[in-house]
Amino acid sequence: MIGQQIIQIHEVDSTNNYAAKLLSEGKLTHGTVILAEHQTAGRGQRGRNWQSIGAKQFTGTYFLKTDFLSVDHLCYLNMSIALAVREMIQSFTRKEVAIKWPNDIFIGSLKIAGILIETNWKNGRVEGAIVGIGVNISPVQSVGYATSLEELSGKSPEVFTVLDALSRSLNGFYHYVQQADFDYLKRTYESFLWKKDEEIVLEERQNPVPFTGIIRGVDQIGNLLVERDGIITVYHNQELNFESNYGRIIPNT
């Protein structure tokens, strides 16, 4: 069961780093979650920091076995995790919660949660995934384009309340990965895809000239499909910049 075994630590540089260390020592089993009160050097997509000092946040890392998945099907693990985090957030608010490709969680134009998945290779196969998840529980004043569970609901849930809800959702969606029900995962993921079928302004990171495109979905290996001038273009992770569509800017302090 995912989330049944919990390792609690007061402070760590990164729960993903800590999980990798335990895994290298043979001390990490499927479903274990590492929960830190404070994370001083947490990592997000594209090397961005995710620090938890000074704000109430959920900062945890799960270890999930993936040795039954082919490399081409790893994107469905990402979809299942994003769907689980989205479902957990949705349980705390009536506002629409969406997945910004590939796995950030947004409400409107504001980010509330992020996911960093790092794979562990052994004998040419992906043996497991170290899944770092950060959720803003209370307002984070030093991060731009952010919101929190407290701002949405007027209440600040306890970290273990978030953990319990998240673990339940992860168990539910991981089941579809185990059953190889990839069509269901893709269809459900696309139904919650942020800005899907809307005209938005995007930039290619290698050619940062703004253009208008329409997100149409993802392909069978998780790449983003964007319609531009009537033509569908396939984009891989980190090839697009979405930031012109984000919400209010909270100045860095």
TrEMBL record:
GO terms for molecular function: biotin--[biotin carboxyl-carrier protein] ligase activity. Keywords: Ligase. It comes from the Bacteria. Its EC number is 6.3.4.15. It holds the Pfam family BPL_LplA_LipB. PROSITE patterns: BPL_LPL_CATALYTIC. GO terms for cellular component: cytoplasm. InterPro entries: aa-tRNA-synth_II/BPL/LPL (IPR045864), Biotin_CoA_COase_ligase (IPR004408), BPL_LPL_catalytic (IPR004143). Residues 1-181 form the BPL/LPL catalytic domain. This is Biotin--[acetyl-CoA-carboxylase] ligase. The lineage of its organism: Bacteria, Pseudomonadati, Bacteroidota, Flavobacteriia, Flavobacteriales.
